[in-house]
Amino acid sequence: MRLAPVLQSFFTDRLVIQRQASPATIAAYRDTFRLLLAWLAATTGTQPAAVDLGQLDVATISAFLTYLQDERGNATATRNVRLTAIRSLFHHAALHAPEHAETIARVLAIPPKRCDRALVCFLTAPEIEALLAAPDRTRWHGRRDHALLAVACQTGLRVSELTALTGGDVYLGDGAHVRCHGKGRKQRHTPLTRQTVTILTVWNAEAGGGEDRPLFTTRGGTALSRDAVARLVAKHAATAARSCPSIKSKNVTPHTLRHSAAMALLHVGIDTSVIALWMGHASPDSTQAYLHADMTIKQRALARVTPPGTTAGRYQAPDTLLAYLDTL
Questions:
Q1: Which position among 30, 91, 137, 183 bears the catalytic label?
Q2: Distance (Å, rounded) from C-alpha 131 to C-alpha 241?
């Protein structure tokens, strides 16, 4: 059986109609199969429209996954995402091509590759202050970037959620908040601090956009792209590193600002279940990564543990005069 009709029904029937997948999911799956078909054409000479479903056996799929990592330089996490898309297609193919049941079962048995999970990268409060001070607010682009960075650092919105914001998504009255339609088709409202409200009030007055106009635009009035936001974050991080050298050791991306917002909430004692709601996580388990990255919580826990061979006692604050003399 040809792959083409199965692949077409996979996108039109399974993803669009049955699962009502988001445009981002459809685009990610589309890119996976474009890569797979292009690689297959280069290695076997078979044109995409002529590919038979039986050609996509375990050996072929495994070789494609190896190609992604060894030749394209994809990370293990990206390799696993591509495998997820392929497995989703084969689940669909099992209903439409039962004659390939054995091949399909073997492909579905390919396990994801285990990978190390790096600690979350985030900015501290002084680093966030340096980043917000980096844009040149005497220029239009600087004022726009300052407003965008302030919203990103305080709300923790994903970059796709930031670029999709319109004037109508921002409410600056009592109970100020931004409304976004996020990952998993979930809508959520994120409150704004007084400082962010002030920044957005000034920016809205200058941008002069209506409710349907993108909140953060190019000079031509179109919404910023994800790549444009990544570039401006990297540019201002490099500027901020001159006054705050600790930023140099960090890879500052739009997602780093999202992590920074979550860590700021964690540092003031907000429960992880509330942080999960704030960030739009599908499960509170996703928030556990911030606990692993937060050394201050671990240090507070260590301070409450009585070392072996010592007697537990109550803490007594030092005399202020003696404390002063100790500093001399």
A1: 183
A2: 8
Give residue 293's Cα distance to chain centre: 16
Give the model confidence (pLDDT) of 212-271 as tens digits.
Answer: 899 999 988 899 998 999 999 999 999 999 999 999 999 999 999 999 998 888 888 888
- For the chain, what are the domain ranges? 3-108, 125-300
Q: 125-300 in CATH: which number?
A: 1.10.443.10
- CB within 8 Å of 100: residues ≥ 6 apart: 1, 53, 54, 93
Contact criterion met (CB below 8 Å) for 7 and 96: no
Whole-model pTM: value is 0.70
pLDDT band at 24 (very low <50, low <70, confident <90, very high): confident
Look-up of token digits 């960075």: 149
158 an active-site residue? Answer: yes
Task: List CB contacts of 265: < 8 A, sequence separation 6 or more.
Answer: 274, 275, 278
Q: Which of 146, 158, 236, 259 is catalytic?
A: 158
Residue pLDDT, tens place only, 274-283: 888 888 876 6
Question: What kind of fold does domain 3-108 have according to CATH?
Answer: DNA polymerase; domain 1 (1.10.150)
Identify whether 29 is a catalytic site residue.
no
DSSP 125-188: HHHHHHHHH-S-TTSHHHHHHHHHHHHHHHH---HHHHHH-BGGGEE-STT-EEEEE-GGG-EE
Catalytic residue among 14, 100, 143, 255: 255
Through-space distance between the first and last CA atoms of the chain, rounded to whole angstroms: 84
